[in-house]
């Protein structure tokens, strides 16, 4: 049995989406056991709508909820909240493997650092979504927002974290790693990116292919794009904005007149395929990498299928040994030998 | 007559695209007079294919060409090249209003600074493309790559430059300005963005609406997005990558089988409309703002219609007085009164 916590109150559509997603996930994988944290009455009300294996679901009643406007460092003091309760259980109960939440990103990151704790040697956790690419697979973008200010050693560790994730999550034995920069030439970028380029080139165990540009996230040939959290966040949200505009323009244009509506009828299946390929939520949430257990941060606007995909991924990634893979790769790259002590704080 | 220089050898498809674009631009606007710099024989060979008003086109023979691999600071020493010759003519001949090039971005920026020169008081020129948005208009993104490392005063000036451009190029009297950041809250980002937020809030003459995220470039409500050149470059290229993937997926899906090909026949017009709305080249090139005259950097892969659009825009923006508008707004905002001398270098 793989025990996974679900913050049932996290996200814009909670607990409707979270509960429906939970039932779908239970029905899809008989090895999954779910613990839902949140307001018991609300959760039970939603649960009554679905069929699922009751022996593999329990509810931990939490009266409090973290609001999206709460300051993260304050939010995680709400001990009775669905997210903080979940983090404490994840930390204390050895048999619980993972946490899935669609709640506040800031609180999830702070809770991960301060309650659950980092893998030994990891300086900062990093958010890592899987973005659909032109090969029909996914590009991992790490970090995409947990760390607005970075040092070279942090970016080197993001390469380790995301490479381990690519190995266990996507079965890529030697994932190609690119550094997100404002041009592909070696000298490009500010001192942070120039120095990181140098270290990544020298790191054993990391298959570094050089600098990549924003367009390579969806078009390029690499499996992992390493980024400071500021640029990574801007890249991710730019891509999401473009995807949203495409979707809006498509809807508007096909509804324009009788001719375009007729066109839609004939092209419906093709359009559906297109949408599926460009769906950012298809893979579920972003991993919060670098923590002692698997934590997945699903989009605030997660639909039931996104929650279900996040739960399925959490199980799969735990099964394939994400944390041991990070620990193994981190010891192989031996950053302490590569980076001078004064830069390695 | 509005005299505009065209670097006929700049870009991947030069001189075919540049020459065809030049003829189209001449035919579309009787007030335009073009000076093409480049290899005379090659240009004349291309010109022979088109009808145009010969009295409004001249060629300045330049034997040398800047290669995309030349280091920018070395490239602009190639005095006999089509770009450097054009820059010197732009500087020295008062009756020439503007320059359009699809050549090396780096050489265009360095040449702009070192040959043509900046508007008095402007610290750095900035690249500013017009990106299609959900309102059916354009969002100006400034800077998107001329300055990898920025200070707050530079970002404040980018707000001035792009606001003036929005006024004269798009007729928006009080353009809404957002600051590209990793979240919308006031405290978001690194010290550069926190400090810039503070100054932008206090700047008279700038209609600052606060922090915006990557998704707001294409989705949001603002006319200008101010950005450091590093993040702006990553945002722009991420958007281009997403646009390209959408285009590829569309092609592939509609060619998949007989059913999807039939769908295409019925949806053709709608798909064409969609493509047009999402076309990054529709507006022509990016302005290199902050220089003493109008300079437009068109995409390296510019098609003839992109070159023609860039030339038409150069004429229009000159007519509407871009440089005087920048000077006026710069004196109104009075950055020297706002920013302490030690930060205002």
Which SSEs are present, and which pair or pack?
Two copies of one chain form a homodimer.
Chain A lengths: L1 E6 L8 H13 L3 E7 L1 H8 L9 E5 L10 H4 L6 H11 L3 E6 L3 H12 L9 E3 L1 E3 L5 E5 L9 H19 L5 E5 L10 H12 L4 E6 L2 H5 L4 E3 L2 H26 L3 H20 L8 E4 L4 E4 L6 H16 L2 H12 L1 H4 L7
Parallel strand pairs in A: 1-2, 1-4, 2-3, 4-12, 7-10, 8-9, 8-10
Antiparallel strand pairs in A: 5-11, 6-7, 11-12
Helix pairs in contact in A: 1-11, 4-5, 6-7, 6-12
Question: What structural class should be given to the helix and strand makeup of chain A?
Answer: alpha/beta
Most extensive contact: A-B, 58 and 58 residues
- Helical coverage of chain A, percent range: 40-55%
What is the string of SSEs of chain A from the N terminus onward?
A: EHEHEHHEHEEEHEHEHEHHEEHHH
The dominant shape of chain A is globular
Separation, N- and C-terminal Cα atoms of chain A: 39 Å
Tell me the quaternary state.
homodimer
Mean pLDDT of chain A: 93
Low-pLDDT parts of chain A are: none
Kindly report the spatial arrangement of strands forming the biggest sheet of chain A: 3-2-1-4-12-11-5
Rounded to an integer in angstroms, the radius of gyration calculated over CA atoms of chain A is 21 Å
Number of extended strands of chain A: 12
Beta-strand level of the residues of chain A, as a percent range?
Answer: 15-25%
The total of helices of chain A stands at 13
Largest sheet of chain A: 7 strands, mixed
């Amino acid at each position: 049995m793989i025990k996974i916590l679900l913050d049932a109150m996290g996200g814009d559509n909670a607990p409707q989406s979270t509960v429906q997603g939970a039932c779908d996930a239970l029905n899809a994988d008989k090895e999954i056991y779910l613990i839902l944290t949140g307001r018991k009455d609300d959760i039970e009300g939603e649960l009554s709508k679905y069929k699922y294996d009751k022996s593999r679901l329990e509810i931990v009643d939490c009266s409090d909820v973290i609001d999206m406007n709460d300051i993260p460092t304050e939010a995680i003091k709400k001990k009775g909240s669905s997210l903080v309760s979940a983090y404490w259980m994840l930390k204390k109960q050895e048999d619980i493997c993972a946490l899935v939440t669609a709640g506040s990103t800031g609180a999830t990151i702070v809770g991960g650092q301060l309650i659950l704790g980092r893998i030994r040697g990891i300086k900062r956790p990093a958010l890592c979504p899987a973005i659909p690419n032109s090969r029909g697979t996914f590009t991992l973008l790490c970090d995409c927002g947990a760390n607005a200010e970075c040092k070279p050693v942090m970016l080197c560790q993001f390469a380790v974290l995301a490479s381990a994730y690519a190995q266990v999550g996507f079965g890529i034995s030697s994932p190609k790693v690119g550094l997100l920069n404002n041009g592909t030439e070696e000298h490009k970028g500010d001192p942070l990116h120039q120095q990181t380029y140098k270290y990544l080139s020298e790191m054993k165990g990391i298959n570094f292919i050089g600098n990549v540009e924003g367009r390579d996230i969806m078009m390029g040939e690499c499996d992992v794009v390493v980024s400071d959290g500021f640029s990574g966040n801007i890249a991710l949200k730019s891509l999401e904005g473009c995807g949203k505009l495409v979707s809006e323009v498509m809807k508007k244009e096909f509804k324009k007149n009788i001719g375009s509506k007729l066109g839609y009828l004939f092209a419906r299946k093709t359009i559906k395929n297109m949408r599926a390929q460009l769906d950012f939520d298809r893979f579920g949430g972003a991993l919060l990498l670098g923590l002692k257990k698997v934590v997945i941060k699903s989009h605030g606007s997660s639909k039931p299928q996104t929650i279900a995909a996040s739960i399925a991924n959490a199980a799969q990634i735990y099964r394939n040994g994400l944390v041991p893979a990070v620990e193994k790769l981190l010891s192989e790259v031996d950053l302490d030998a590569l980076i001078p002590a004064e830069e390695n704080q």
